[in-house]
Amino acid sequence: MTDASEWVRRWSHLVPPGTPVLDLACGSGRHMQWFAGRGHPVLGVDRSAEALQSAAAHGEVLACDLEAAPWPLQGREFGAVVVTNYLWRALLPRLVECVAPGGVLLYETFAQGNETVGRPANPDFLLAPGELLRACEGLRVVAYEEGYLEPPARFVQRIAALRLPEGAAAKPRLRAEDGAR
After folding, report:
1. Domains of the chain, with CATH numbers?
2. 144 within 8 A of 132, measured Cβ to Cβ
3. Does the chain have fewer CB atoms within 10 Å around its N or its C terminus?
4. Distance between CA atoms of residues 122 and 143, nearest Å
């Protein structure tokens, strides 16, 4: 199985200990495995029943075509919502809503410009400049990157954004503790 994304690993210390993690479009569950290994209950959602067979080794799974079916997680909240290499714009507000107070959205996907270096090239699956930032209004952005990365060559946007608890007096833990990665 492929390792968890560098972005997810870098910001995973923001996830409150022991809180549930949603891995959306989880595929075979590389991020489910990462968080389950750190003591989090995990839920992976994907449309591929075949991929979910592997993912099920790491936690709860839900087969759902997110682009055609009603939103299956109405009213549920998670200490982290993790999305990598997937974009369905209609879900962006739902994903932000799923972040529990004190929780974090960790999102990384392809951006405009990627069509010049590879796939995806369809503009429906490429974020416009600043689009991920706008989708996270109401969350506290801890980190945001937009641009070109390699290897492999790709254009991405990625964000780590917190939902601060109402009336939060405590500052969020923004730095990883030794060994947290």
Report:
1. 6-107+124-146+156-162 (3.40.50.150)
2. yes
3. C
4. 26
Euclidean distance between CA atoms 181 and 171, whole angstroms: 20
Residue 34: strand, helix, or coil: helix
Q: What whole-number distance in Å separates Cα of residue 81 and Cα of residue 98? A: 7
Backbone φ and ψ for 116, nearest 5 degrees, come out as -85, -15
Residues 34-38: contacts with CB under 8 Å, at least 24 apart: 34/4, 34/8, 34/9, 35/80, 35/82, 38/12
Sheet containing 78-84: which strands, arranged edge to edge?
60-63, 42-46, 21-24, 78-84, 99-110, 154-162, 140-149
Furthest CA-CA distance within the chain? 46
* Residue 107 CB neighbours (<10 A): 27
Query: Is the confidence at residue 87, as pLDDT, over 70?
Result: yes
